[in-house]
Design a protein that fits this description.
Elements: E1 22-24, E2 29-31, H1 33-41, E3 50-52, E4 73-77, E5 82-85, H2 86-90, E6 99-101, H3 102-209, H4 214-223, H5 247-254, E7 256-259, E8 263-264, E9 271-272, E10 275-278
Antiparallel strand pairs: 1-2, 1-3, 4-5, 4-6, 7-10, 8-9
Length: about 280
């Protein structure tokens, strides 16, 4: 049996009868691992001085020197901050250094370090454990969240494609109708111009042919008075004005991925994920 566990299997936890491992000084309670954690989570006992059960005994277990295995550690080098056996203490490496009894150094350093130990147990470890649980929850939900965002993005893209296809058909139909209408106007204008050109050519030809023929010219003038001839306006062709396309417009159309802190919906109480797909 490990010497560090001596006596632990003969003492029971005061709360659940499991093997004791800790001792609460203010409550005078023997605690197992699980009950110690519950004890320190309770607001009424969170700040209690909970120690290892074997620390309630004055016995300190001697330990062998790593370098001189036949010797036990008995001293402590205050300059190098390491334990020493008698042979180490007399050696060149620690000669002249301030040294003290290892047990005294142990008790002094133990009490100093206990504050850090208690802060870890009561504050830092619970905080990190809680954060780790939240991170693990996010990892577990991440795949479904990612799949959901992609599905919603694809749904938006399909809607956009459908709307674009419908708008293309609408604009194409409008373009064809306007072109057909414009073609009719152009053909009418073309016919009017052809008629006027023929009329004007006849005037020019008859005017030239009636030169030096008074009677013929006067009859020509009677049938073709000098009325103003107006040419019809040249109708404009339809044009296509392109819309403006940029990344921001596409984002407004499809949506975007946002990352926020976890928030809780006041209506449903459901937790909103850190990353979510926002529809516009």
């Amino acid at each position: 049996m490990d010497e560090n566990e001596v006596g632990l299997h003969y003492t029971e936890c005061d709360k659940c009868k499991q093997n004791v491992k800790y001792f609460c000084v203010p409550c005078n309670l023997n605690l197992c691992q699980g009950c110690r954690e519950e004890h320190l989570l309770d607001d009424t006992s969170r700040s209690h001085d909970v120690r290892m059960y074997r620390e309630t005994y004055a016995t300190l277990f001697p330990e062998r020197c790593d370098r001189h295995t036949q010797n036990m550690y008995t001293k402590y080098c205050r300059e190098c901050l390491v334990p020493l056996c008698d042979k180490c203490a007399r050696g060149h490496s620690h000669r002249g250094h301030p040294q003290g009894d290892i047990n005294e150094a142990y008790h002094r350093q133990r009490e100093t370090y206990r504050k850090w130990y208690k802060k870890i147990l009561s504050e830092l470890l619970p905080q990190c454990t809680d954060k780790k649980d939240r991170v693990q929850t996010k990892i577990e939900r991440g795949r479904d969240l990612h799949k959901d965002m992609l599905n919603r993005l694809n749904t938006q893209a399909d809607k956009a494609k459908k709307l674009i296809d419908e708008k293309v058909v609408e604009i194409a139909t409008m373009c064809t109708n306007r072109w057909n209408s414009q073609m009719g106007t152009l053909r009418t204008t073309e016919g009017e111009l052809s008629s006027k050109i023929t009329h004007m050519k006849n005037i020019v030809e008859n005017f030239e042919d009636s030169a030096n023929h008074p009677a013929s010219f006067l009859m020509f003038v009677k049938d073709n008075p000098m009325n103003e001839i107006q040419c019809p306006e040249d109708p404009p062709l339809p044009s296509f004005v392109e819309g403006e396309l940029d990344r921001n417009m596409i984002e407004r159309l499809l949506g975007r991925v946002e990352t926020n802190n976890l928030t809780q919906s006041p209506e449903s109480g459901a937790t909103r994920p850190d990353s979510f797909f926002t529809l516009q």
